[in-house]
Amino acid sequence: MIKPYILACFVGAIGCGSCMSRPPIEDRPSLVLTVKNEANGFSLTLQNPSSYERCIVADDWPTRGGLMANPTMSIAVEEDGERHVMRDENLGHCIGDCGPVRIAAETEITAHLPYSQFPDLPKAAHSSARLVFAPRETPCDRY
Predict the structure, then answer these.
(1) Other C-beta atoms lying within 10 Å of the C-beta of residue 3
(2) Is 102 buried (19+), middle (13-18) or exposed (0-12) by CB count in 10 A?
């Protein structure tokens, strides 16, 4: 007779064969970030070209309103040799972990960062400003 725990492991291995063959984060295709300067801010698109769900740290992606918690650590605008940091917002606090931003396989997520979130950036510099931004990837299976 097959012991229940052996049967459970066998069935689990068959049902999750694709999970076992998933390459580590560093071996997957890179996420592709596209930034466009628009009339009222930066338009962001983060594309997941892989066949697996990918995740980024929640604090590294703007809210629908273009706000970010602790952005000075992950985002800035460079213009004419000067660095302009994004306005810090208090978005509350999660007890424990807030979880990641999930990007389904072969899809993309979008966001908008208004220039008004960079209070020291001169208005005349909006079209020539360059966004310095690199969302950090995190394993999805930790959550």
Answers:
(1) 8
(2) middle
